[in-house]
Design brief:
single chain; alpha+beta; four-stranded antiparallel sheet; 6 helices; elongated
């Protein structure tokens, strides 16, 4: 009995050990599988991160690529085909120029004010503000009571003239036949001449007012000069008076330039002197000729009023346009300068295209931002105060082509 119990106890321990062994083996297996999965996932993440770093360029490389995009290249044949010419940045003389604000105004010598010759009521208006008109063109039509009376007086004078003419011809016939006395003939002749004078006076009065004899009291306002309607103060149905200024007509092909010059500026300006001014909108330069200067400076401000005649009729020049006058002050100085044609505007900055020879027997061009200073009197050269140095090659002619190509490339890159 003791032997059986001992055997049974041994088998029980064997079973427990086997179960523990199986549980331990399953646990070890599960732990190894989990570690293997984590290691594989971590490896995949590192591989993906390496791939991303490989695809994305570094910051410096990106900057180099951006610079490469801004750089343009042309062969010698392309440069000749598009008239792109190079020059070297060099020292040269530039003027010491001071700028002063100025304003374009209407030339009052080429301006007309239109007022009625009669008081009347406006029946119709034929033109609009800003409209171009020609000399003699109808502007408006008025109904004028006084004109009705004057036209009626003309008709009465014409009727009296017909009657006086008939009386004169009858008396002349009778006198020539010896039937009538000479004094009767003379009386008829005097009456006839007086009737002629009255008709002529009535017609001259209407003609002086610019009214037609058969207009039935209508009076037409016409343009005394060709130009643009710059002011219009008339509406249908209103009553206008003799002194009312109904229209202003300006001839804009000739403008005035007005500005004030401080006495402390120490700049000598003389009548008939040619000066230059720059449009603030486009940067274009134009010439003007000094017409008049005030005889003395203003007592309170110490400024000298100057008026000049604009020597250009460009369409961008309009009355009330603000510009800058450029006046030479002092002597010429030597400075780094480039051709004015080389300056271009890119992203709102002044740039010059600098050229560098490449291995393909051509040139690479880069837009270098610059700061400009004074210009020569003829406008051919521009001083460069920052951005370039003497000896550099730059595009002196044809830089607009490079600007267009650069902007075109940026647009395509943006899309």
């Amino acid at each position: 009995m003791d032997m059986k119990q001992k055997t049974r106890s041994q088998w029980l321990w064997i079973a427990v050990i086997a179960v523990l062994t199986i549980v331990l083996a399953v646990g070890l297996l599960w732990n190894n599988k989990t570690k293997t999965s984590e290691t594989a996932a971590q490896g995949e993440q590192e591989h993906a991160h390496q791939e991303n770093e490989k695809d994305e360029p570094k910051h410096d490389e990106k900057g180099e690529e951006h610079e490469a995009e801004e750089s343009l290249s042309l062969t010698a044949e392309q440069m000749q085909q598009h008239s792109v010419k190079l020059a070297q940045v060099a020292l040269g003389e530039v003027n010491q120029v001071q700028t002063f604000p100025a304003k374009l105004v209407v030339n009052t010598d080429r301006q007309a004010h239109v007022s009625p010759s009669f008081a009347g009521r406006v029946e119709s208006v034929y033109v609009e503000l800003g409209q171009q008109v020609k000399r003699g063109q109808a502007l408006a039509n008025l109904l004028v009571p006084d004109l009705v009376d004057q036209q009626a007086n003309l008709q009465i004078a014409q009727t009296n003239l017909e009657l006086a003419k008939q009386d004169y011809e009858r008396e002349r016939s009778l006198w020539s036949q010896g039937i009538s006395a000479k004094q009767d003939y003379q009386r008829a002749y005097n009456a006839y001449r007086q009737a002629q004078i009255q008709v002529q006076a009535a017609r001259s009065r209407l003609s002086a007012f610019g009214a037609a004899s058969g207009s039935s009291g209508r009076y037409t306002l016409t343009a005394p000069i060709s130009g643009v309607i710059s002011n219009k103060d008339i509406v249908i149905g209103e009553n206008v008076q003799l002194a009312d200024q109904l229209f202003t007509i300006d001839q804009l092909d000739q403008l005035w330039l007005e500005f004030v010059l401080p006495t402390m500026a120490n700049i000598n300006v003389q009548p008939n002197q040619q000066i230059r001014f720059k449009s603030l909108q486009t940067g274009n330069l134009f010439n003007a000729q000094v017409q008049s200067l005030t005889t003395e400076a203003d007592a309170q401000t110490g400024r000298l009023q100057i008026r000049a005649k604009v020597l250009s009729n460009a369409t961008e020049l309009r009355p009330n346009l603000m510009v800058n006058v450029e006046l030479q002050a002092g002597s010429k100085t030597s400075a780094i300068r480039v051709s004015s044609e080389a300056i271009q505007q890119v992203d709102g900055k002044d740039v010059v295209f600098v050229a560098q020879a490449n291995q393909k027997k051509g040139f690479d061009f880069k837009a270098i931002p610059v700061q400009i200073g004074q210009r020569t009197q003829d406008g051919q050269w521009v001083e460069i105060t920052q951005g370039l140095s003497a000896g550099q090659s730059y595009v002196a002619t044809g830089s607009f082509l490079l600007k267009s190509e650069l902007e075109k490339g940026e647009a395509e890159h943006g899309h």
